[in-house]
Design goal:
506 residues; alpha/beta; 17 strands; 21% strand; globular
Amino acid sequence: MARASLIACSRAIAVGPLEERCLTLAMTHPVILLFGATGDLAKRMLWPSLFHLHCDGLLPEGLRVLGTSRSLLTAGDFRLELDATLRRFGHAEDISDLNLAEFLARVDYLALDVESATDFQSLAAALADAGEILCYLSTSPSLYTAICTHLRAVGLAGANVRLILEKPIGHDLASSRRISDAVGAIFAEDQIYRIDHYLGKETVQNLLALRFANSLFEPVWNAAAIESVQITIAETVGIEGRWSYYDDAGALRDMVQNHMLQLLALVAMEPPANLAGVRDEKVKVLQSLRPINAGNVRRQTLAGQYAAGALAGTPMPGYLEEDGAVARSTTETYVALSAYIDNWRWKGVPFFLQTGKRLGRRHTEIVVRFREVPHNIFEGAQAAVQSNRLVIRLQPEETITLELMNKQPGLYGVQLQPVALNLSMADAFGTDRRRIAYERLLLDALNGNSTLFVRRDELEAAWLWIDGIHTGWVQAGMRPVPYAAGSAGPVDACDMPGAANCDRNG
């Protein structure tokens, strides 16, 4: 139970009417129930995030964390493994014997087979004194239905339970709906928190502040002033041993359907009345995306697959040479899209989205390119006016840059060059520590704040658009073109609408 609940109960006890109920509540405690507690995501992100929240004093008093997985470990053995995990993946400034001991005192473990009704009876017994429960399903989505069904059977699906679902939620619109129907038959929509960790990144959240807390941008945040928007998520890594998953998904389903469309929606959304309306406005953007189908798929999309190459001088295998590869796979590891939003604000503005693996450099950024000035008074060989750009970089560093034209110092005529006004998060706020995106999202879920989580209609609008592209590829007979590992991706992507900031050289 959260602190606010305990405070309310203490007041109720003082006046009498709810004394019996509040005494019962006071004997319970909040719990985070983590399915998939020994998985890679849990080790690298979830456990370190909870540990850092603990060190910052942000976890509710009395909170317990119960991890479950199929691994046959005792609670003591699990804590020993978790200690090593946190020392490896946690921030160095928080690692101390005292902090670790205090956090591990909150942690318990239960070996559990999600197909076993008996195991869920043991789980219910372990949670007999739980108050509010935050249940995180860090498992394959194929297990969501079984887990939720067993939770209901043992009385762990009441109004005191919130459910976090990890992506991918489905493989297409039809499978997404099947999962949502099954989970929704047990949990109400306001109990379900569909997580996309990109929404927990500081710079992504700062998009809201940049747009709606500054009068400078909103008057020019439209098709009259903006020529194009480019969103790039470039990775240097390959599939990292996840062949079976990645070959079934591909770049379009793995990255565009969730991360990239979330960024697009935040850039393009209308101003909400308040933060509670953010999700309403994001849905409107996704529903306004111009469909891509067999008629326009060749003009507006390009798929690629990395071939053998070199990265920083180190030879890299091609996608079809990775461990476990199927020699004839046509799965895309790179995708570029020119998307259009058919509404008043953005009519005709291309949103160029590109993402890929084994590219020459790792970076994630949003580039808003403004239109050129309507008349250049500096015409001549010594002057060239370039359009202004707003660059919002999410990684490897978190910065916001506004590029403005400026006169170079000197007495030999007007020579112009772009000058960047930089806002570095580390410099502005005096810290080099970067929060794990999951820290914010876990804290919001604990507090019942769903603003940064994905609603069902939002998820389905994204899948509907993505399914149209996949169908278009099949109908048009399109296959991914090869690009060398360590390059910037297929060169032809730079000729697509909106690719004004395209990197042809890596």
